[in-house]
Known about the structure:
Elements: H1 3-22, H2 26-45, H3 52-68, H4 72-83, H5 90-112, E1 121-126, H6 137-158, H7 171-176, E2 179-183, E3 189-195, H8 218-232, H9 237-241, H10 245-258, E4 269-274, E5 283-285, H11 287-298, H12 305-309, E6 311-323, E7 328-333, E8 336-341, H13 347-350, E9 357-364, E10 374-381
Antiparallel strand pairs: 1-3, 1-4, 2-3, 4-5, 6-7, 6-9, 7-8, 9-10
Amino acid sequence: MSWLVHHTRSEEYAAQAEQLFRRQQFSRAAELYRLAAEAETNALNTLDKSKIRTIGITAVSAVSLYSKAQEFALAKRIAHKWLASELLPSFAVDELEDLLQVIRYEQSRAKSGIQFIEGEVLVSVSGGEVLYGAAPLELILRKVEQVKSLFYRTTEFLLEKPHRTRGLPGQDVKDQCDPWLFQAPAGSYQFEVRVRRQKNFEQLILGDIVDTELRVEQITKKFLEIVRATTQDPEGELIEVVPQEDYRETFLKLTRELAPPVSGKSFDQMEIKSTSDFDSQPVVLRPDTRKAIKNVLKKPEIVSPELTQHKIRQLKGTLRGLQLDKDWIEVNIDGKTERIYEAKEIDDVIGPMVDRRVVVEVLERSDRPPDKKYSLHDIQLEEDLI
């Protein structure tokens, strides 16, 4: 049979496998992926060695399908065979090397016995100072922490916890949401987040409410749903997804901090997507995302009497200290420390800003003593606004 016949058969098996995977019939899906991989390997063996591009595409497809079928030994054997052949175009060499990296991770995970819930979140940053497979350490550490905060907040929301304004998430939340960071194949700069499965993942009982059940598998799906609604329709879909106003404001602020700076200097685009949902489109955050979210956060204040009675000022300096339990922060401005009161800000947002240059919008209140005249209106990192 010809390459076309084998390849068409492979595509048919793969399409059926994807449908079964969506329905979470994983064992049957794996069987069909294996049949698709066998058909693709047969197609590969029929090709003339002059068909370099087709060889590359087919070899990558065969290895990928064997990997999806959990047939890792066969996947590695085919990858190494064709990498050693010197017949592959450069794009196929890169893709096969990336696949081998994924296979090594899957094998080590299986050996460890550690299990993760279905669904992974792939986060990639690009543009600005970000290179292919490399990025400033401080930038990536900050983005990882922000993604982790969003995962914890999503879990608290699913658990119907009271909105947390101070401190870290409780141990019961951490027991249900244990995010792990994985190295992703090099793109611009990418990392993958998965949530480790707990022993009691089948059912979660909250206090005496026996009928309140949370399948941990919802965490990743809900995380993506919230971020998507926050960036694409914060005044419509987000209200439906997150009805509670305090939670909604927190998700808006955390996503704003996740977005690229207005200047796009350090990076100018972030993509967040599911690696297991075939139909899911990536959530894209750009500098204008930050502006749009800021506008949504400001809208309720249009009718606020405080804005008509007091002057709004903008202060630039270094955030040196905070005491959120007492509702104040301290900002060093040209060597002088200003204490700003009514700092009703959540730890997740303001904590990472300590010892960094910030831009603080304050209400300057004429009805208070000079040393207590400033009330916090908004705060962002200076680098995100330049």
